[in-house]
Each structure stands twice: as structure tokens, then as C-alpha cells.
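EI: anyone free to look at a 137-residue chain?
SC: sure, send it
EI:
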Amino acid sequence: MSAFKSDTRLNAGKLDDGGDHAPGDEPKEDVGHWVRNANIGLGLSALLTAGAFFLASSQSVWGPAIPVGLIVLGIAQMGVQLVFFLHITTGPDNTNNVLALAFGLLVVLLVVIGSVWIMDHVTTNMMPVEQMAPIRP
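SC: here you go
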């Protein structure tokens, strides 16, 4: 065994290219990396937000295409927020974060779809207005 592999002080902060690592094995990143990522995310978020306001208020885009453009910009904004601010990546240490995000989305979708389904059934089964008794004050 070489001295490099056996001495943990020489190996600190360095990863080999062997592939499999525990979540805490990543080398420490300097503060500049985090500040740079936050500034890039802030810039992209500001551009996407300004683009959405411009798209909604301008006449340069065909009218029926405006909602589609806003949806695309909204999805891009969600991607920027997830990557730059919540640090959701495809790395092996983010499995729990991605699963928690997927579970949260599932719960939100179930609540929204269930609410729409219930409201549709209530509307369908509502008594016609003509058959309702007049309301007396």
C-alpha cells in the first residue's frame, strides 16, 4: 500500500475517481463558489422575471401564445430556483432531497386534482336554480 492511500492526512479533501462515495466525502468548496452560484441564480431569476413582465405587457407576441410563454418562463424559473438556491442536483448525495421534492409534488397534485374533482361533482349534482326555493330575508 502506498503512503498516499494509507495516510489520511494526505488524502483529506481529495476524491479519487473510483466512483462510489459517501455523502460527506465531497471536498470542501470555498465561499466564493457559493457566492458565485447565488449571484448567477439571482441574475437568471431577475432576467426570467423581467421577461415574464415584458411578455405579459407587450404586444409583440401573438395573444394566445402569451400563456404558453408564461408557463415556459415559470418552469424555467422553478428550475433556476431548484438548482441555484435549493441545490437540487443529480448527485448521489441528493437522493433524499429529490425524493422529498417528488413526494411534495405528489401531495400538491393530489390536493389540487382532488379539489377540482370534488368541485366538478358538486357542480354537476347541484340543484338547478329554477327549482330552488326563493330565499327570504
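EI: The helical segments are 3-6, 8-11, 31-57, 66-85, 95-124.
SC: 👍
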